[in-house]
Design goal:
The complex is a heterodimer of chains A (about 100) and B (about 160).
Chain A: H1 5-25, H2 29-53, H3 59-89
Helix pairs in contact in A: 1-2, 2-3
Chain B: H1 3-24, H2 28-48, H3 52-76, H4 92-111, H5 127-135, H6 139-161
Helix pairs in contact in B: 1-2, 2-3
The chains are: A mainly alpha (about 100), B mainly alpha (about 160).
């Protein structure tokens, strides 16, 4: 079977699902960040696959580049926040950070 | 089955298998290292799709930047004396069911429509075309991204260094 658009879409779907799974099940905040990175990568695969198999010029490539830049900014900010949480509460487990509940 | 297909299946298997280990491994450092292979596999898929510049940027920014940042995060938020850096999991069974349903519906939604695809032409180098687009019709977006990166880096430094 010739590798076509659908193959790439299936790969990106599974990558997206695993990102969602990591976000939902992991306690550690950094693992949640890794899940977000997986999701962004799957979105990028979709953009570039549709660019390749459709007639969209190179705009999909540009969008993918913008997504990569925003992912870098997001990772930097999120890790700064996680470090601050660790300094304040001595834990990065998301289910233990519930100070506002009391 | 030609060479292109074989390489595609290799990269897809590398990406998906290592992503599976990322989300299931209990040791967070192992997860970070498997994430490296996932990013390599995704870069290979970009190359197969004719996106050479995006693949290089993926390698430089993700593998060289974001992954190192995540590893620093792992090291700084765990006690180094504690050899086993484990991470707990919650909601396994509801998550498996929900993610399975999500995957199934996404797959059916993606496979069902007959996407109208054009005949694929030989991949061309994209770098100069992308550069031209960035300084012509996408100049505003380019400048805004620069400002966003600057603000994000200053903000990250100031948040992480704030004294109590």
């Amino acid at each position: 079977m010739e590798v076509g658009l659908n193959h790439f879409l299936v790969v990106s779907t599974f990558l997206f699902s695993m990102g969602i799974y990591a976000i939902v099940t992991r306690k550690n905040a950094i693992m949640v960040l890794m899940g977000v990175e997986l999701i962004l990568n799957s979105a990028n695969i979709n953009f570039i696959a549709f660019t390749r198999f459709g007639n969209f010029g190179l705009q999909g490539h540009l969008i993918a580049l913008f997504v990569i830049v925003l992912a870098a900014a997001e990772a930097a900010i999120a890790l700064a926040i996680v470090l601050n949480i660790y300094k304040t509460l001595s834990t990065v487990n998301i289910d233990e950070i519930d100070n506002l509940k009391d | 089955m030609n060479v292109y297909d074989i390489i595609f299946y290799l990269f897809a298997a590398l990406t998906l298998v290592s992503a599976f280990f990322v989300v299931t491994n209990r040791n967070i450092v192992y997860s970070a290292f498997f994430l490296l292979f996932t990013f390599f596999g995704v870069a290979g898929i970009y190359v197969l799709l004719g996106a050479d510049f995006v693949a290089i940027v993926q390698l430089i920014v993700y593998v060289g930047g974001i992954l190192i940042l995540l590893l620093f995060g792992v090291m700084l938020t765990n006690k180094i004396t504690n050899v086993e850096i484990k991470t707990g999991t919650i909601n396994i069974y509801p998550a498996v069911i929900g993610v399975g349903l999500l995957t199934g519906s996404l797959l059916s939604a993606l496979i069902q429509p007959q996407w109208r695809t054009l005949p694929v032409e030989a991949p061309m180098p994209t770098t100069s075309a992308l550069g031209t687009m960035l300084i012509h019709e996408y100049a505003l977006v380019f400048e805004l991204l620069g400002i966003i990166l600057l603000i994000a880096l200053i903000g990250a430094a100031s948040i992480a260094r704030r004294e109590k």
